[in-house]
Each structure stands twice: as C-alpha cells, then as structure tokens.
Amino acid sequence: MLAQHTWLEHISLLQSHIYEFSSLPSTQLYALEMIKSNTLMPPFCIWARHQSDAIGSRGNRWEEVPNAMTFSFALTLASLPKDLKIQSASIFFGVIMCEFLRSLGSQTWLKYPNDLYIGEGKIGGILTQKIHNTLICGIGINLHSPQHSKYPTLEEPISHKIEARAFLEDFFESFNNFVSWKQIFSIYKLEFNKNNTFFFHLDGKQIALENTTLNEDGSLNINGHKIYSLR
Question: Does domain 1-195 have CATH number 3.50.30.30?
C-alpha cells in the first residue's frame, strides 16, 4: 500500500530519491515499469543523461538532440493539490518548469498544453500519464551544445550553467511555491494569448488556439464544448 504523503512531504522525498542513469531508452517508460513491478514506490525521479527512444506527444518519438535534460518523476495522486484536475497536470507542471527556468533568466513559456517554447521555437515538452494511483510526469529540455542541432534549445548561457542533479533538486524545491492549481491558473491565464498563432491537435484535426478560451480548470472552450488535454 502506498504511503500517504502530503504535497510538501513529497517534495523533500523527491529530492532524496533521484536515480541517475547514463542511458535509458525512455525515463518515462522506465518509471512506468518500476511502478508496474512494485520495484519503486512514489515519490521518485528517474534521470538519464541520454535517452535513445524517448516518447513525445500523441505517441510520437522525441527526436534525439546532442545535449538534453531528460527526466521523469512519479507522485501519488493523493499528494497532488486537491483542486488540480488530473487532465491539467501537464499544464500544472509545465508552468512550474517555466517559472523555474525564468528564475534562471530564461524566456521560456508554455504552449498549450505541454510544449516548452522560447519565442517561436520548441525547446522541450511535458508528458504526463496516470497508472493506478500514481502520476508520472516526464520532462525533456533541449540544451545548447557545441555540436550542431537542428532544434531550438534553452538559452546558451543557462544551458552551460546547468548541473543536472542540482537542477533537479532546485526544480523540485520550487514546488514549495505552488501549492494549488489556482496559483498556476492565475499565472497561465495572463500569458495564454501567446498561443494565438498556434494550433491544438484534437481528434486528428488542428484547432486554432486563437478561437478558443481557457477555462478555470485548464480545459479549453471550443464552440461551447469543454475539451481537456490528455497529455
């Protein structure tokens, strides 16, 4: 049976349960297997210096880049803020990551519902999934590298200062500043208009985000219909 820890207790436990790997096919799939096999109990974080077969949105493969920050963490559903709908978990953790990166000097923003952008370029993404009584959140961020990459990356000065374990510990520490979905929504609603030139994928179709409104629970209002992200 999973121990029932509060949100703030989970933060401390996450910081002390970071498992490092030189290489994995996917940190999210590894975390998923650890949960299924009862090998690890949440909270924990899986961090790999290299991923060979990472998962992207809508089942796509996340393209490999020369240098990246890739990790997945697991939390019990019971520990999450009570006002957070699980369908909006990617937005919740995406905004926290953006706020953390901004504290380092980045201009990162969250494209609805789970992409990390700087300007018009995608530098990373968030993918969440629920298994049993656990939420797994995977995050990938492209870092600047001397090697050529065709993909946008986190700003060069910030990328070069990142020490992975300290980055993770500080990121998890920043959770202390966000104890409710209401806080996250109050931040995200102010910059949701940055999405106006982009599209949202729904049932294989592209929906212009400028034709939507963001509801208070993180869902979108599209022609009077409430639509949740399932990422």
Answer: no
